[in-house]
Amino acid sequence: MKYRVLWFLYLVFLVVMVVVPLGTTILSDIYVFKLQLDHLVHVVVFAPLVVLWRLGFPRHPVWKIVGAGVILAVGLEGVQYLLPYRSGNVSDAVANIVGVGLSGSGLAFLNR
User: Does 108 score more than 90 pLDDT?
Assistant: First the structure.
């Protein structure tokens, strides 16, 4: 039950981070190992979603969790695209999907 609460709170956190206006710090201008820091943040932020989902709902198959995570990752980036004070783009959506995919792959590997 506690993992379900954590998953729900994390989901609320993701939605709030999508709709809240950000300050003037632009992470896309900072590079780490030739990757934009913004993309690394997207990967790291979306990875726990799959793990918390699996812990909270252990009967859900990993492939369904990853599929729903991909839909959520793209959908939240689409919401950002529609908001006048945020900018959603394809590269951020891909980074979100990478985060979901990496954690999903890790779970699938551990469940073998």
Answer: no
CA quadruple 102, 35, 88, 19: dihedral positive or negative?
A: positive
Alpha carbon 65 to chain centroid distance?
Answer: 12
Paired tokens of 95: 């980074």
Matching residue, tokens 């990478």: 98
pLDDT in tens, 4-59: 999 999 999 999 988 887 765 555 555 555 567 778 888 999 999 999 999 999 99
Q: Please state, in angstroms and as integers, the Cα–Cα distance from residue 20 to each residue in 5, 12, 68, 112, following that order.
A: 22, 12, 23, 39
The CB density around residue 41, as the number of other CB atoms within 10 Å, is 15
- Provide the strand spans (E) within 1-83: 31-32, 35-36
